[in-house]
Amino acid sequence: MTLDLSQYMVRTDLALEAKELAERMHGAPIPGLNEDITEDDGIKVTRLDVLNESASMQIGRVQGHYVTIEVPALRNQDTGLQERVAATFVTEFTGFLDKIGITEDKKVLIVGLGNWNVTPDALGPLVVENALVTRHFYQLAPDQVAPGYREVSAIAPGVLGTTGIESSEIVQSIVERTKPDVIIAIDALASKSLDRLNTTIQIADIGIHPGSGIGNKRRGLTKEILGVPCIAIGVPTVCYASTIVNNTFDLLLKHFDQEHGGAGSGQTKQIMGLITELSEQERLGLVKEVLQPLGHDVIVTPKEIDEFIEDIANIIASGLNASLHKAVNADNVGAYTH
């Protein structure tokens, strides 16, 4: 009999976290991954390329390019830092477009996935609200469009529970009618780390599967399905209760490691018992085994989510506006958001 262990796996949408988990399990770097990390005054950028099928299988992520921007201090709501993050996003996203061959004349469709009425899931619609759209000008008065802009349209298709239609089906119909050259899909993600909630932005060229981070299997927005390249932009806004408990075990072990001379010491083992001998995956499996039958493995978001989601949506929207339109001043990326 083959056991299905997928329910005991760590739930994360971040390629960086999947890579960290895989390396921890194997105890060595994964062949077929290229990683480049830069850090500047609190803004850490990780560029990860999954080069072959073997590496893809080991980390559970599709072959492609991933850029992760981590800014722990975003929680402090520092306006100056938010502007620097938006400028970093412009640099990284522009380079990302160049890397996958999206030139300045290509038409763009921005898709804001998620539910307006659920704050942690409202990232996509909020970005669409602040995006600088221009397609109607190109349709109605193309001769009056100033240089430095490109044709951009945007849609927030809602969610299956409120429309009765898969987001991918709605987007596919729009693609067939408006014929964009590239799709940029924005969605909320799930993370295994509390520290990365609302402080991390991931860019990827592999498309997106709405709801995948919380276990909902939905028809994806990918090049294979839609016929045009699909870039995914995501921010982790939720994690599972089991993940929080598992992270707490890690913090406790680190605390006792400092206080009592290591996780293998007598005092630490006396306090934590057999937990000290379990791997992260085994601990998570134990926690899920306890919580899931009770219905307590709930999806959790920080209580400050209302402020966080507005801030991060503005950062992404202003960054996209400056990346897609040369006429938008990259040094003042916040000027084009509401």
Automatic annotation (TrEMBL):
KW Disulfide bond (keyword) present: no
GO BP annotations listed: proteolysis; spore germination
Enzyme class, UniProt record, top EC level: hydrolase
Swiss-Prot/TrEMBL keywords: Hydrolase, Protease, Zymogen
Positions of the pro-segment in this chain: 1-13
Record GO terms (molecular function): metalloendopeptidase activity
PTM text: Autoproteolytically processed. The inactive tetrameric zymogen termed p46 autoprocesses to a smaller form termed p41, which is active only during spore germination.
InterPro entries reported in the protein's UniProt record: Pept_HybD-like_dom_sf (IPR023430), Peptidase_A25 (IPR005080)
Gene3D superfamilies, sorted: HybD-like
Swiss-Prot/TrEMBL catalytic activity: Endopeptidase action with P4 Glu or Asp, P1 preferably Glu > Asp, P1' hydrophobic and P2' Ala
Keyword Nuclease recorded: no
EC number(s) from the headed UniProt entry: 3.4.24.78
HAMAP family listed in its UniProt record: Germination_prot
Function: Initiates the rapid degradation of small, acid-soluble proteins during spore germination.
Record-stated family: Belongs to the peptidase A25 family.
NCBIfam families reported for this sequence: GPR
Subunit structure: Homotetramer.
Protein name from the UniProt record: Germination protease
